[in-house]
Amino acid sequence: MGDDHSHSSKGSAKSWLERIAAIFTAEPQDLSDLVEIIQEAGTRQLIDTDTQRMLEGVLDVSKMRARDIMVPRSQMATLNINHSLQELMPVLLENNHSRYPVVNEDKDHIEGILLVKDLLAHALKGETDLDLRPFLRPAVIIPESKRVDALLKEFRQKRYHMAVVVDEYGGVSGLVTIEDILEQIVGEIEDEHDDEEDLDIKQMASHVFQVSALTPVDEFNESFGTEFDEEEASTIGGIVLHAFGHMPEKGETIELQHLTFKVSKANNRRLVQLQVIKAKTPAEPPTE
Fold it and tell me: Where does the CBS domain lie (predicted)?
């Protein structure tokens, strides 16, 4: 019986070694084989964790279509071509993007792409009644089925950064930027404004707070006196997302533990910023 066990161990060890040898000597037959090689290289510390994740991200991108990573139509920040610069300033300040699709009437009628930097000199001169039309650049239109790796190649070769995604009927269904693709490879790219927003729980009014979705649950519980379960999710964004049961759009609200959570910033992959509203206590009668 001991001999059988020894034979079995040797056999399994041999098959395991053969498998490892095959991984590192044979050519990969498909993407799953290549992923296995990358994971094994990470396990053997031939590459570091970040490199492994990026390589896996590159392989993921090779399987994706524009519809998989686009910012959906409902979350697109657009500018109205008939508005003056003065009328558009609130949109520019709220979203803080470097470029916007410019629409006429609705999001299915995109006139072009506006780069905010093109307006800067005029804005500094106080020319707030500017007509946007002379500043528009052509909008690149792509189908939902466009391969993401091919799109990245076009972005680099043709030096544009944004593409409008349309469905089979020609209606606008979303947009993709070069940053959206790079985030699939290197992870979320935050700018200095995101850092400022994400650092703190900020009180905006007596009962209204701005909260980063990445705020740890224990920190949130301590600040708001709530009892959200840290086992359910590590961040308040995870708690809220789980409660919604779907990826909510900007402006959607949900009530949890006497608090109203409103999505103030999100992309098609995660919640970014939440507005938290405390229930107001009944007003005290005025003193005479």
Answer: 70-130, 135-192
